[in-house]
Amino acid sequence: MISQANLKKALDLRSYKKEGKQMKIGYIKTWKELEGWGFIEDEEGFDYFFHQSRLRKGQQIKVGEKVKFDVEEGQKGPEARNVTKF
Question: Alpha-carbon distance 49 to 51, whole Å?
Fold first, then answer.
């Protein structure tokens, strides 16, 4: 079930891309290295799913690290891409 906050965030993605906003900044909240996925919490408290294929090549991450990322609309809501250590 999608929360109201995630629904609003998903709807705001169109304006995010149109306005040409800079990359978001957040922290690795969850990282399941063996499974290859995790969540990033941005500075506003929203969570974004990401898959290891969305990490910049050669990047090694761990929980609590500061990262920057772009946002795109995924199958189940907003997802992080171009995840890079900050």
Answer: 7
Number of domains in the chain: 1
Q: In this structure, what token pair is assigned to residue 42? A: 């941005």
Q: What is the pLDDT of residues 22-65, one digit of tens each?
A: 799 999 999 999 999 999 999 999 999 999 999 998 889 999 99
Q: What residue numbers bound the domain in which 46 lies?
A: 4-85
CATH of the domain at 47: 2.40.50.140
Integer Cα distance of 36 and 54 in angstroms: 10
pTM: 0.74
| DSSP assigned state of 62 | -
Please provide the size of the chain in residues.
86
Q: For the chain, how big is the Rg over CA atoms in Å?
A: 12
